[in-house]
């Protein structure tokens, strides 16, 4: 066959078809993107930037560095491991005197206090008397409080001398510095943060399992009932979903408290004595019960949407081949519901890990989760500490979110 | 599903046991919501049924907690005549009325913002040509997944640190919406923006779901019949996706109406909403007035749920998706 020179295909106005198509594609892409752009910009402004600001705060604290310029300068000229000599103490005393004038001794002390507890008061006391101190300053300061001679305090101050720091993550990991600038874990009874993270995960797991156990039968029932009936019953699932969280929480208080409905009922039936009622709220039990109730719809809905499309013929086939109903459930039905179980469990777990309102209202002392600790630090104006804890929680949630997106696809989330 | 004739006795027992279990779970779901309604009429300041209530004695019931909702925070004697001036005072001073006004105002604007931006974005996201669809969807839906305490913390830092300097042209133009220092903290606008962000994922999900059954050839048909993109949007696309848009908007409104953590962190005394007021009530002096407001909210959510259900059916009918 002879080679026929083929002219490239052209559009009516004489442009090559390929280029014209590519241009049209680019234009269509740009149009689609322009539709999304306003929202994207809005979400960046009200969501992404605030979260980045928060992350920045978790690394940034100038409580000490801004208020102790002379000491910071001394650290800059003397490398790590240098002997803390009289010049260092002189710099510190001049800073303390300046702090007293600017009333910033509390701020500087607070910054050091995060990683070396008990320093707010010694900073304030030393600043108060800084004017009256006479050389040698080292002896004078140590005479006021022996902590001033502690090498660990100086290591701590060296780390606080730059405003950018990872100290807050160190504290959030229950670690502390050693006098030779190493890291070690804090005493077991002070390990609150890691413990609270673990507890949050454990409680979320318990809530997820409870929600799964409660949802499975009703999702199954909704899936096998005729549409008309299941739509009616579905309202019982959706109404809690649509009811205010605070309404649900306050009605649980009415039900579970010591003078509440369940306790009244049990006392009336003489199951428990009148004056020794069950503590079911303002503790961990309360958090678990109420959160299970609140998150239940998030489990039922994904389970239901998966169960709805499982053909009943498989189960019938298994039965006709001689399987018992238990075997049919275990080998045939359950494996087909796994996508729903995964979607629901992951969603409930993600939501539970970051829950704040319910534990704060009904959790009492031992039913608090990590979110409540973040809020606690925010209320105490420990911005950097709160930000560091929030950042760790954010990373954990984002990992779970990524997992959810990989396994289930976030765009397949359905509401009702 | 009826019990098959070949069922063994054990299966018969299980068949009924299963239904009992389901009934109990449904009870667990719904009882806490319905229980607040009778309790809110309690004449005593208790959170439980009194003997009189159980005996259905009318003197055990009263509307006093609903009355508290009107009088709490009003600077008037208890026995003041309930005339026009009294109602005017209630409208201006009552804490719960103020909270309700704030909630509706903030919820309304947050819903408008979320619905307009969310619907436009959903239209773009459901186009096959959309670049980076997965990543962008994940970002836009993340306010639903990221714990609210983190969002609130971030907003607190962002709103209090980023302020427009005095005298700036932009600051002067925006001054009615910003606080005295030119910040978004303690302003209605700040809360509205935060709540819109929280509501956006719901709008995107519902509108995208409506668009998934959307027949793209309708757009081409409309264009071939001479409609410009504008006409196509308002005459063809909009009526078809409207049920999704409205239910997304309702979701956004409920999200805002029920939101308390962001309000706790970034609102000032002028932006107290109903949930914020309830939060105070539950934390400090818990009284059945909380249950009275709860009853009102339950009735509102029943109305909203019915609306959503009607919209869903209409949308399915319009798109030709018949319920099996």
Largest sheet of chain A: 2 strands, antiparallel
> How is the main sheet of chain B built?
none
Termini separation of chain B: 15 Å
Strand runs of chain A, count: 2
| Helix count, DSSP H or I runs of 4 or more residues of chain A | 18
What fraction of residues of chain B sit in β-strands?
under 5%
- The helix-strand sequence of chain A is HHHHHHHHEEHHHHHHHHHH
**Largest interface, counted with CB-CB under 8 A?**
A-B, 94 and 97 residues
Residues in helix, % of chain A: 55-70%
Q: Percent of residues of chain A in beta strands?
A: under 5%
| Secondary structural class of chain A | mainly alpha
Low-confidence stretches of chain B: none
What's the gist of this structure?
The complex is a heterodimer of chains A (416) and B (324). Helices cover 69% and strands 1% of the residues of chain A. Chain A is mostly helical.
Structure commentary:
The complex is a heterodimer of chains A (416) and B (324). Helices cover 69% and strands 1% of the residues of chain A. Chain A is mostly helical and 416 residues long. Chain A has two domains: 69-188, no CATH class; 193-412, MetI-like fold (Orthogonal Bundle), CATH 1.10.3720.10. In chain A, strand 1 and strand 2 (183-185) form a beta hairpin. The radius of gyration of chain A is 31 Å and the shape is flat. Chain B has two domains: 9-86, no CATH class; 95-286, MetI-like fold, CATH 1.10.3720. Chain B has helices at residues 9-34, 36-39, 51-54, 64-71, 84-93, 95-125, 133-145, 148-161, 169-174, 188-212, 217-224, 229-257, 261-266, 274-283, 289-319. In chain B, helix 4 (64-71) crosses helix 15 (289-319), helix 6 packs antiparallel against helix 12 (229-257) and helix 6 packs across helix 14. In chain B, 39% of the residues are buried. The mean pLDDT of chain B is 86.
């Amino acid at each position: 066959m002879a080679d026929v020179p083929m002219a490239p295909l052209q559009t009516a106005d004489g442009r090559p078809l390929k280029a014209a198509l590519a241009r049209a594609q680019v234009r269509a892409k740009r149009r689609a993107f322009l539709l999304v752009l306003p929202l994207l910009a809005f979400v960046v402004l009200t969501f992404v930037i605030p979260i980045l600001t928060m992350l920045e705060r978790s690394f940034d604290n100038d409580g000490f560095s801004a208020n102790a310029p002379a000491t910071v300068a001394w650290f800059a000229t003397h490398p790590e491991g240098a002997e803390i000599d009289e010049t260092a103490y002189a710099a510190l005393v001049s800073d303390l005197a300046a702090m007293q004038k600017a009333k910033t001794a509390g701020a500087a002390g607070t910054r050091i206090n995060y990683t070396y507890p008990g320093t707010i008061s010694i900073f304030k006391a030393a600043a108060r008397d800084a004017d009256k101190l006479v050389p040698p300053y080292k002896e004078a300061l140590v005479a006021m409080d022996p902590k001033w001679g502690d090498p660990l305090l100086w290591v701590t101050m060296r780390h606080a001398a730059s405003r950018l720091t990872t100290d807050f993550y160190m504290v959030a990991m229950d670690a502390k510095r050693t006098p030779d600038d190493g890291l070690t874990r804090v005493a077991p009874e002070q390990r609150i943060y890691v413990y609270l993270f673990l507890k949050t995960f454990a409680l979320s797991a318990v809530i997820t399992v409870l929600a799964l156990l409660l949802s499975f039968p009703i999702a199954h029932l909704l899936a096998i009932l005729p549409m008309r009936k299941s739509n009616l019953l579905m309202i019982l699932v959706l109404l809690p979903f649509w009811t205010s969280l605070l309404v649900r929480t306050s009605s649980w208080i009415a039900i579970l408290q010591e003078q509440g409905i369940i306790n009244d009922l049990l006392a009336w039936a003489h199951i428990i004595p009148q004056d020794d009622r069950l503590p079911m709220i303002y503790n961990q039990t309360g958090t678990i019960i109420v959160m299970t109730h609140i998150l239940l719809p998030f489990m039922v809905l994904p389970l239901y949407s998966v169960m709805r499309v499982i053909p009943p013929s498989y189960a019938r086939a298994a039965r006709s081949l001689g399987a018992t109903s238990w075997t049919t459930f275990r080998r045939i039905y359950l494996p087909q519901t796994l996508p729903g179980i995964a979607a629901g469990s992951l969603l409930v777990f993600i939501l539970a890990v970051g829950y704040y309102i319910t534990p704060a209202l009904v959790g009492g002392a031992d039913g608090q989760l990590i979110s409540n600790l973040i809020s606690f630090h925010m209320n105490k104006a420990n911005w950097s500490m709160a930000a560091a804890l929030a950042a760790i929680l954010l990373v954990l949630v984002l990992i779970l979110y990524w997992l959810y997106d990989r396994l289930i696809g976030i765009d397949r989330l359905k509401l009702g | 599903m009826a019990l098959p004739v070949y069922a063994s006795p054990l299966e018969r027992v299980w068949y009924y046991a299963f239904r009992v279990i389901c009934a109990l779970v449904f009870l667990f779901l719904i009882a806490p919501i319905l229980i607040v309604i009778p309790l809110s009429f309690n004449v005593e300041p208790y959170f439980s049924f009194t003997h009189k209530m159980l005996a259905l004695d009318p003197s055990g019931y009263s509307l006093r907690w609903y009355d508290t909702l009107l009088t709490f925070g009003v600077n008037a004697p208890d026995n003041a005549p309930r005339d026009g001036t009294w109602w005017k005072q209630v409208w201006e001073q009552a804490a719960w009325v103020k909270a309700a006004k704030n909630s509706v105002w903030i919820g309304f604007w947050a819903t408008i913002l979320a619905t307009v931006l969310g619907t436009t974005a959903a239209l773009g996201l459901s186009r096959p040509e959309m670049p980076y669809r997965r990543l962008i969807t994940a970002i836009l839906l993340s306010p639903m997944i990221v714990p609210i305490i983190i969002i609130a913390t971030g907003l607190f830092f962002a709103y209090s640190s980023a302020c427009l300097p005095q005298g700036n042209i932009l600051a002067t133009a925006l001054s009615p919406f910003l606080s005295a220092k030119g910040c978004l903290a303690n302003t209605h606008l700040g809360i509205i923006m935060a709540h819109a962000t929280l509501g956006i994922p719901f709008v995107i999900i519902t509108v995208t779901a409506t668009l998934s059954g959307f027949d793209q050839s309708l757009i081409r048909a409309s264009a071939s019949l001479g409609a410009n993109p504008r006409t196509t949007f308002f005459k063809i696309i909009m009526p078809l996706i409207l049920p999704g848009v409205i239910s997304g908007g309702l979701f956004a409104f409920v999200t805002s109406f029920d939101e308390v953590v962001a309000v706790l962190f970034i609102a000032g005394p002028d932006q107290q909403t109903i949930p914020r007021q309830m939060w105070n009530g539950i934390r400090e002096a818990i009284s059945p007035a909380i249950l009275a407001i709860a009853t009102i909210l339950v009735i509102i959510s029943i109305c909203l749920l019915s609306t959503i259900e009607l919209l869903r059916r209409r949308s399915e009918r319009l798109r030709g998706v018949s319920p099996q």
